[in-house]
Amino acid sequence: MNDHAQETRMVRTNSAEPVTCAIDPLAERFAAMRHAAMKAREWGERYAEHRAAIVAHMGAAEVATIGGRPVARHTTTTARRISTEAVRRLPAELVEAVTVEVPSRRFVVVDADDGASV
After folding, report:
1. Pair 118, 109: CB distance under 8 Å
2. What angle do CA 108, 114, 115 make, to 5 degrees?
3. How far apart are the C-alpha atoms of 109 and 115, rounded to whole Å?
4. DSSP character for 18?
5. How far apart are the first and last CA of the chain?
6. Rg (CA), the chain
7. What is the pLDDT of residues 32-52, one digit of tens each?
8. How confident is residue 110, by pLDDT bands cut at 50, 70 and 90?
9. Is the Cβ–Cβ distance between 96 and 105 less than 8 Å?
10. 64: β partners
11. Among 36, 13, 41, residue whose Cα is nearest residue 101
12. How large is the greatest C-alpha to C-alpha distance in the chain, in angstroms?
């Protein structure tokens, strides 16, 4: 992780067993979702390969054209982010004072046999 990466810590808000919900009526939809996720990963890899080849061919150019018409832009942007390396060197009290916990939910498909994340 570089010092510009953002850190996210998942915090379970309840130590009790998770609430379950039967989705039997959505079994076909769930199977279709799993299939779509597999295809998305496959297509994502293909997209990344093609994109890398095009970006490499573009070099320093910002606009790619086909037949003289613009088809893609590759521009440089500058973002301002907090350096986690620098934050780690700050006094713990200061870091704690400016740290907030933001609850979120994560959807993970699990293996039906052993319950492990897929």
Report:
1. yes
2. 25
3. 9
4. P
5. 23
6. 22
7. 999 999 999 999 999 999 999
8. confident
9. no
10. 72
11. 13
12. 61
